[in-house]
Structures are given as structure tokens and as C-alpha cells.
Amino acid sequence: MPEMVPPVGTRPETGLTVPSRVNDAHWSLAMALAWIAYRTETAVSNIKSGRWAPTKGAIHELLSALRAGKLTAHGLFEGERIPHPIEGAVWANFEIVVKPMRFIGHPSLMPIVIVQKTGAPRTRLVATVPAAKVRKLWPLGRRTAAAETRCQAYLVAEMRRSPNRQPKPKRDFLADGQARFPGLSERAFERAWAKAKELTGAAGWGKAGQRSSRGA
After folding, report:
1. What average pLDDT score do residues 26-49 get?
2. What is the pLDDT of residues 46-74, one digit of tens each?
3. For residue 184, which of 35, 127, 147, 158 is within the disulfide window of CB 3.0 to 4.6 Å?
4. Which residues contact 165 (CB under 8 A, 6 or more apart)?
5. Which backbone phi and psi does 188 adopt, to 5 degrees?
6. Half-sphere exposure of 42 (CA within 13 A, CB side)
7. Tens digit of pLDDT for each residue in 134-143?
8. Is the pTM of this model over 0.70?
């Protein structure tokens, strides 16, 4: 049973009040995870609505950077009042977990990011990280290139599965790719499509009369 939380008061990793928070100098860990996972400002600004959930990969990357000292967080342990830098060694004893919670007045479960000590007692930590450093460590361009590579691998597998018949329109593959691989642009998709055809020799894909973006 998900935890019920009232609409006011303190909520872990929440408090986003306006979309402009994406321009703040410091992000909550939830906002940082949104950027790492999706590389869009929309994902960062929409964390309050629960429209995204951080991936295990994003959590691993963020924790690794914090533990290695590549990224320094400022935060408060339970009972503290003044934020202070959180040393990299401290993160070895903490984990980032995502718990679905239901807030009164909100129709669906919201993924809430919680930082807690791995052993007893379950001390919690609320922290922020410098947004500029997050963007530098996880640049948009690198995500776009990775998305193109992963999309190409996906298309290669699909073309090898059905080399003589394109099973759905090209525009549907584009939509599918952008849903599967955040950061994938239409131009990157076109490059991945062309390279996949070259690698597989899928003669039935993109031919006139086949199920392409221009047909059926």
C-alpha cells in the first residue's frame, strides 16, 4: 500500500513550485536524476507532476559521481538546520531509493526520491547539487549520440527479424525510437535508419509500396 501524504508540509525531494526552477543554480537530486535519465529541461521541470521515474542507470551514475567526488552535494542530515558540503566518502553509506507515494488531491502515484543510510538507523539526507556541474558531467550531446547508437542497434535487430517486409510505417519507428531512447532527434533517427539498412541489407524496408512513413 503506497504511503498517503497530505498536500502541504515537508515532502522528500519535492517543493518545485514553478517551472522556472529548472534555471536554479542548485537542483534537488530528483531534478538531477531527471536530467541524467532524459536530458531535457521538460523532464526536470515536470518532476512535481510525477510524469517521469528515474532509471536505475541514472541513480547508479549519480551515486558514482557523488562517491568519487566528481560532484559535490550540499545538504542536511535529519535534525540539522544549516546546509553543508557532503563529502564523497559519506555517500558510501547512503543509497538513493525511489518510493511511489500518493498525495491527497493527486490522482496517481508519484515517484519520490529519498536518500537514506544503508544500515541502521535509517538516517535520511536532503541534498542539492550544482545544476551547471550536472549539465557538464552529463552533456546533452553525449546523450544524443548514445541514443542514436542504441536506436541503430534496435533498428538492426528489427530489420534482421523481418528483412523483406517492413512491419509498420517509418514514422511509427521514429515515435517508438524517441520513446525508447530519450534525446533521439529526427535527424539522428534518419542516420540510424540508413546505417541499419546498410548493415542488414534489408531490401524490403523503405521500398515503394512498403509500410513506410509515406505509405500505409
Report:
1. 82
2. 776 666 677 788 899 999 999 999 999 99
3. 147
4. 204, 210
5. -65, -35
6. 5
7. 999 998 877 7
8. no
Locate cell 550536472: which residue?
134
Residue 143's nearest CA partner among 37, 18, 7 is 37
Neighbours of 74 (CB within 10 A): 14
Mean pLDDT for the chain overall: 81
Contact 126, 150 (CB under 8 A): no
Q: Which of 187, 188, 192, 196 is nearest to 157 (CA)?
A: 196
Give 109's contacts (C-beta < 8 A, 6+ positions apart).
Answer: 2, 50, 100, 101, 102
Among 116, 93, 105, 86, which Cα is nearest to 8's? 105
